[in-house]
Amino acid sequence: MKAALRKAGQREVGGILMGENIGNNVFIVREITIHRHGTFASFIRRIEDAIGGLRAFFKETGYDYVRFNYIGEWHSHPSFEPYPSRKDDLSMLQIVKDETVGANFVALLITKLGPGGEMISTVHTYLPDGSKIPSTFKIET
């Protein structure tokens, strides 16, 4: 992800998060995709960019959708604070309320590189009832 942020520079970049449910509302991000269709102030998510990554992830994890599944989206705000915009909120609520997606929640990670090259990030969880909850995450190396 850091390499994608560096390469994108002032353009937004993003993708999807695929994870493992390890219990008690705790998820580990196991895979991310990187889609390069961003501009200075918007990241455009194209479903065709995500399908291949999702299919490969599901195959690798034995199609165990209860344990391994899509958990959300990520994108950068290189020129702004890493908090969801109104457009971000609406997009995530549209995903979580879409019955064909069938999600109980979706997470949105927004990130940017700080002055020292460190990642500065926030995560919010969106629920089908329309609520948005600030969430915690930890990067392990």
TrEMBL record:
Q: Which residues form the MPN domain?
A: 1-128
- List the InterPro entries hit by this protein, alphabetically: JAB_dom_prok (IPR028090), MPN (IPR037518)
Residue span of the signal peptide, if any?
Answer: none
Keywords, sorted A to Z:
Hydrolase, Metal-binding, Metalloprotease, Protease, Zinc
Q: Which GO terms describe its biological process?
A: proteolysis
Q: Which GO terms describe its molecular function?
A: metal ion binding; metallopeptidase activity
- Protein name as it appears in the record: MPN domain-containing protein
